[in-house]
Sequence to fold (485 residues):
Amino acid sequence: MTFLGIDLGTSEVKALLTDDESHTLATGSARLEVENPHPHWSEQSPQAWWHATLDAVTQVRTSNPAGFSALRGIGLSGQMHGATLLDRAGQVLRPAILWNDTRASAECVELEALVPESRLITGNLAMPGFTAPKLLWLSKYEPAVFRAAHKVLLPKDYVAWRLTGEFVSDMSDASGTLWLDVAKRDWSDRMLSATGLSREHMPRLVEGSEAAAQLSDTLRREWGIANPVLLCGGAGDNAASAIGMGVAGSGSAFLSLGTSGVLFAGTDQFAPNPAQAVHAFCHCLPGRWHQMSVILSAASSLAWLSDVLRKDVADLAGAAANADAQGAPLFLPYLSGERTPHNDANAKGMFWGLTGAHGEADLAYSVMEGVAFAMADGYAALQGAGTTLETASFIGGGSPSRFWAKLCATTTGVAMRRHHGGDVGAALGAARLARLAVTKESIAQVCTSPATIEVCEPDAAQRPMIENRLARYRRLYEALKGISL
Fold:
């Protein structure tokens, strides 16, 4: 039997077919575009998600038809927080409002005033990226759309509905809505009511590793599969990545440099720290939780510099390793605002200390260092919630850079483990969740860590210089946060 993991990201959909030991048999991918119709807005077409999913699956089917015909389980992972609204006829009412959309800042304040105990219920600060404030915004500025909404779905759950005809979500993804009582692993009627919604608007909840629905007979026949195919609950992208990297329990962690940057730590209990914008969510495994620090512009910061300088990202990363770190400018990577620890949608990026003597290598170093500093801020917030780490898997689009891994290790003091396949963790994790749901194997059997290429230890010789620059980096934000353009 085989298992399919589908990861609905912000920039692409990835599909990964595995055998019953989680070895990769075939892969496929399809690009996605983000629309920014106004400042602070970020939207995508749910129909584009569906077409990209079909394209990625077609690549897998074409690459390994025999393996695909043996499919028994599908797992979905996806970008979190996106608000996807359907009417009673199943029609999409408007483009989905994405995780990095910051239009609902005022509504966050309003929501916490409406529910003073919201942080106790959800374990999290109200942030504009979360789903609930987006619905408050829609109720004010697009009331006809809000009134017509029959279901509010997260991105991967829209794809699940297209695959199965069922409205279903998992605990990890639902934790990012601000409608979930995270300790109780159930929808909060209090939080739903505050945004004018009820349980009727929500999908059914299941654990990520449990059966959720069946692939529709129409798609199963179209894809040439004779036997029933189970869809598991799946996971938000970071929880799925954790399963792909074997991060399932307390003490295990990963640091991901994708579009956003995430430091993810598994926990065996609900351990929030909302005061420092730590995300405390359910894990996609029963009875487990996790903490996350999140920055909004990680590898995307280097991609931005690549576009500006018209230089390849890999070339810039290579040049950064030879820059004069001591004399490089400082860079604040707040190109889309920031979450942990500042929760500041209006935070702005900048270079400080720039002179005519600086070149592209210096700028590349500054950007990579600034992202590493932001991750160090995030780890400090996790430490405030009682989490201490010795090592973390280094994954995401930035993971091929050994230099960046070393830089993150030195800034955080946490050793970074590099792996083969560090950029496909979420799709692999989704496939593993499907395997758990179908085979009923133990978590320890399925959620193993991939082979480590190397361990990048903190550079003790560089640490004093890095600490000095990190202190100045932190002072920059504090000095500038009250200044608006």
Q: What stands out?
A: The CA atoms of residues 89 and 150 lie 9 Å apart. Residues 360-384 form the longest helix (25 residues). The chain has a mean pLDDT of 95.
